[in-house]
């Protein structure tokens, strides 16, 4: 109840109504006190009129008149003469005098609150204007105890009435909030929960129906969001199906192209000049098609498997990569260098680290070969406090601006002609799988430097 919106609204409503009643209570009590004192002055004036009508009244009647007016004595100012009209024994001196002839609101409130907090039964003097021109000024002395008791009784009745009004008001507002706000909000929440169970089902998309403007806007925003999400999920499902189809086609196409390569190798032995001129272009096209299908198959896997981390000798992996690329260099004037400290080990998946380095070194070799000039590729490794760093440096022509903008994005080749754009994307993904990163340190006319940064730690956790 308390943790619900309507429950908290109920409690706040009661509290706020009570605060409002308190603000009303203070001036009400002050007004009640003023009326109480004026009534005592009027009774005292009536009692004095009896004396004016008959100067010879007995002592018993005089005391009865004073008790009825609830005062000790009455002083009336008439014709500039101050007369003690009625009197009785006063239990003590008057401790305070209150003038009701022209009281201010602040003064009335102050005196009323002061009387409420003072529990002593004291003698007070009250001065006021006689009614119906019965004199110039009337003055009485009276006890403060009955006044305070009457004020407390009045305050208690005001409190009870305020409490009843607060409960009734809060109850009505509680019902209104549940009907106008909580119920529509629960409807929206229910629609969201239903949609979450089957977001691909377009029938579960929320249909805006609220008449409240703010809630209607929220429903429309949610409707648009769910519609877009459903379309995105459908598109993702179609892309996944398309990816599966492409993977199957690429697999079959790779087998066909592999067979075509074998036939091309046989045709290469032909002495026909036309065949000899066309054959290099044919073999190049076939090789590019084979590379594309192999890269697509590799990238089209649902996800790369988690790396199996072991301590490996960096020099062995680097040497395997360099030797493989050196064999693929052919007649091109490209030299390879290795700068790996002897005995340096790091924690990585040896197969995946090989793939990362192979992609980087192969890209560097192909970039240098495209220039037709001599070049150099260096693979270096070092150990720092928090990570291992392996760099691949080449003296190629550098990456063009378009390639730098689309770096590490799959199928976004912007550098080498015929490239698929998958090499760097796969390498970056494998590095992230190790908890590390693949960075482009610099590129320009004097060459390019990539860095593989792998964290030093157990698994993918903190550093040793």
From TrEMBL:
<keyword id="KW-0067">ATP-binding</keyword>
<dbReference type="InterPro" id="IPR004358">
    <property type="entry name" value="Sig_transdc_His_kin-like_C"/>
</dbReference>
<dbReference type="InterPro" id="IPR036097">
    <property type="entry name" value="HisK_dim/P_sf"/>
</dbReference>
<dbReference type="Pfam" id="PF00512">
    <property type="entry name" value="HisKA"/>
</dbReference>
<keyword id="KW-0902">Two-component regulatory system</keyword>
<feature type="domain" description="Histidine kinase">
    <location>
        <begin position="248"/>
        <end position="458"/>
    </location>
</feature>
<feature type="transmembrane region" description="Helical">
    <location>
        <begin position="158"/>
        <end position="181"/>
    </location>
</feature>
<keyword id="KW-0812">Transmembrane</keyword>
<dbReference type="Pfam" id="PF02518">
    <property type="entry name" value="HATPase_c"/>
</dbReference>
<dbReference type="InterPro" id="IPR003661">
    <property type="entry name" value="HisK_dim/P_dom"/>
</dbReference>
<keyword id="KW-0175">Coiled coil</keyword>
<dbReference type="InterPro" id="IPR003594">
    <property type="entry name" value="HATPase_dom"/>
</dbReference>
<keyword id="KW-0547">Nucleotide-binding</keyword>
<protein>
    <recommendedName>
        <fullName>histidine kinase</fullName>
        <ecNumber>2.7.13.3</ecNumber>
    </recommendedName>
</protein>
<keyword id="KW-0597">Phosphoprotein</keyword>
<dbReference type="InterPro" id="IPR036890">
    <property type="entry name" value="HATPase_C_sf"/>
</dbReference>
<keyword id="KW-0808">Transferase</keyword>
<keyword id="KW-0472">Membrane</keyword>
<feature type="transmembrane region" description="Helical">
    <location>
        <begin position="6"/>
        <end position="30"/>
    </location>
</feature>
<keyword id="KW-1133">Transmembrane helix</keyword>
<dbReference type="InterPro" id="IPR005467">
    <property type="entry name" value="His_kinase_dom"/>
</dbReference>
<feature type="coiled-coil region">
    <location>
        <begin position="215"/>
        <end position="242"/>
    </location>
</feature>
<keyword id="KW-0418">Kinase</keyword>
């Amino acid at each position: 109840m308390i943790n619900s919106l309507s429950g908290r609204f109920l409690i706040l409503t009661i509290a706020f109504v009570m605060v409002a009643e308190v603000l009303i209570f203070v001036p009400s009590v002050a007004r009640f006190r003023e009326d109480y004192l004026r009534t005592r002055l009027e009774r005292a004036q009536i009692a004095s009129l009896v004396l004016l009508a008959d100067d010879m009244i007995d002592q018993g009647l005089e005391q009865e008149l004073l008790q009825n007016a609830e005062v000790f004595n009455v002083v009336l100012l008439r014709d500039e003469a101050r007369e003690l009209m009625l009197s009785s024994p006063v239990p003590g001196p008057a401790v305070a005098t209150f003038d009701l002839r022209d009281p201010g609101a602040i003064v009335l409130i102050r005196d009323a609150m002061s009387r409420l907090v003072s529990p002593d039964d004291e003698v007070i003097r009250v001065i006021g204007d006689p009614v119906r021109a019965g004199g110039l000024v009337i003055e009485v002395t009276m006890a403060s105890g009955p006044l305070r008791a009457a004020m407390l009784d009045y305050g208690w009745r005001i409190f009870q009435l305020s409490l009843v009004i607060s409960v009734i008001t809060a109850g009505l507002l509680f019902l209104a909030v549940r009907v106008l706000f909580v119920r529509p909000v629960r409807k929206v929440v229910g629609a969201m929960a239903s949609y979450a169970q089957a977001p691909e089902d377009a029938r579960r998309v929320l249909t805006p129906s609220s008449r409240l403007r703010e809630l209607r806007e929220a429903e429309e925003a949610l409707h648009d969001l769910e519609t877009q999400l459903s379309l995105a999920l459908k598109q993702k499902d179609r892309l996944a199906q398309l990816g599966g189809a492409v993977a199957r086609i690429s697999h079959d196409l790779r087998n066909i192209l592999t067979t075509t390569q074998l036939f091309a190798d046989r045709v290469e032995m032909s002495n026909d000049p036309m065949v000899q001129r066309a054959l290099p272009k044919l073999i190049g096209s076939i090789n590019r098609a084979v590379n594309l299908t192999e890269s697509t198959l590799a990238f089209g896997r649902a996800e790369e498997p988690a790396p199996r981390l072991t301590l490996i000798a960096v020099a062995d992996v680097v040497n395997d990569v360099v030797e493989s690329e050196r064999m693929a260099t052919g007649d091109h004037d490209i030299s390879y260098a290795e700068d790996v400290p002897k005995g340096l080990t790091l924690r990585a998946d040896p197969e995946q680290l090989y793939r990362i380095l192979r992609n980087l070194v192969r890209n560097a070799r192909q970039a240098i070969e495209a220039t037709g000039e001599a070049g150099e590729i260096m693979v270096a490794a070092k150990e720092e406090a928090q990570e291992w760093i392996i760099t691949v440096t080449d003296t190629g022509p550098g990456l063009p601006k378009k390639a730098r903008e689309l770096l590490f994005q799959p199928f976004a080749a912007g550098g080498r002609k015929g490239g698929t754009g998958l090499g760097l994307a796969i390498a970056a993904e494998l590095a992230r799988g190790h908890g590390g990163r693949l960075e482009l340190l610099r590129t320009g006319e004097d060459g390019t430097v990539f860095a593989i940064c792998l964290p030093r730690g157990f698994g993918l956790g903190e550093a040793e």
